[in-house]
Amino acid sequence: YEAPGGSTSAIIAYSQVSGLLIENNDITALAGPSGGQAGGNGINLKDTVTNAIIRYNYIHDCVADGIWTANQGTPNGIKIYQNIFSNNNTSHSDNGALTFAILTDNVDVYNNTFYGNYRDYVHANSAVKNWQWFNNIHVNAGQFFRVPYSGNKFSFTYLNYNSYTDTAPAWNLYPSTYTSLSAWASACGVLLTGCDINSITTDPGFLN
């Protein structure tokens, strides 16, 4: 799937969709605006999308976000696993490979590979909650996390067993930026016991 440009995304799931399965796709948004809801996204979970599974996809080269939630409603019960997110947010705007910008609840992100994104994750709303993020590989991101965005509430309930590799690593826990895994784990550990305590910075040794 490729977004043709303009105010659009490659895939848009509208409100009240439940039981959605998005799998085995090559998804990109090479053209369009650089701002979330305006377009340029790989997948837009729009309004109240529930019990969705996003897996086995190659999501890459999106102008804005790989996955974005937008408008009103409460996306709930979202599982995102075994995807490759590569070179997303090519516009270097205020977005990430994943950006959750509205009320979002009960989300599991695990066993994904994030490679060369401008940011890997942006948490942009105070009501994002009940997040689990584990067993993900993060390589060469401009910033691994920007959470919470603009002082909103920290929302992870589990964050651990991830791998981070970068020549200039950066994690943002508003308003501070941390440049080592130990400093990041110590800071977010104040808000979440055991935050990234078992995560590593070993290079995964990708060949390509």
What layout of secondary structure does this protein have?
Elements: E1 9-13, E2 21-23, E3 26-27, E4 41-46, E5 50-55, E6 58-60, E7 67-70, E8 76-81, E9 84-86, E10 98-100, E11 105-110, E12 113-115, E13 121-123, E14 129-134, E15 137-139, E16 145-146, E17 156-160, E18 163-165, E19 171-173, E20 176-178, H1 181-189
Parallel strand pairs: 1-4, 2-5, 3-6, 4-7, 5-8, 6-9, 7-10, 8-11, 9-12, 10-13, 11-14, 12-15, 13-16, 14-17, 15-18, 16-19
Antiparallel strand pairs: 19-20
- Major beta-sheet overview: 8 strands, mixed
Rounded mean pLDDT is: 87
SS-derived structural category: mainly beta
Q: How are strands sequenced across the largest beta sheet?
A: 1-4-7-10-13-16-19-20
Task: Tell me the overall shape.
Answer: globular
Task: Please count the helical segments.
Answer: 1
Approximate helicity band: under 10%
Contiguous uncertain segments of 5+ residues? none
Query: Distance N terminus to C terminus?
Result: 23 Å
| Percent strand | 35-45%
Number of strands: 20
Could you give a short description of this structure?
The chain is mainly beta and 208 residues long. 4% of the residues lie in helices and 38% in strands. It has one helix spanning 181-189, and strands at 9-13, 21-23, 26-27, 41-46, 50-55, 58-60, 67-70, 76-81, 84-86, 98-100, 105-110, 113-115, 121-123, 129-134, 137-139, 145-146, 156-160, 163-165, 171-173, 176-178.
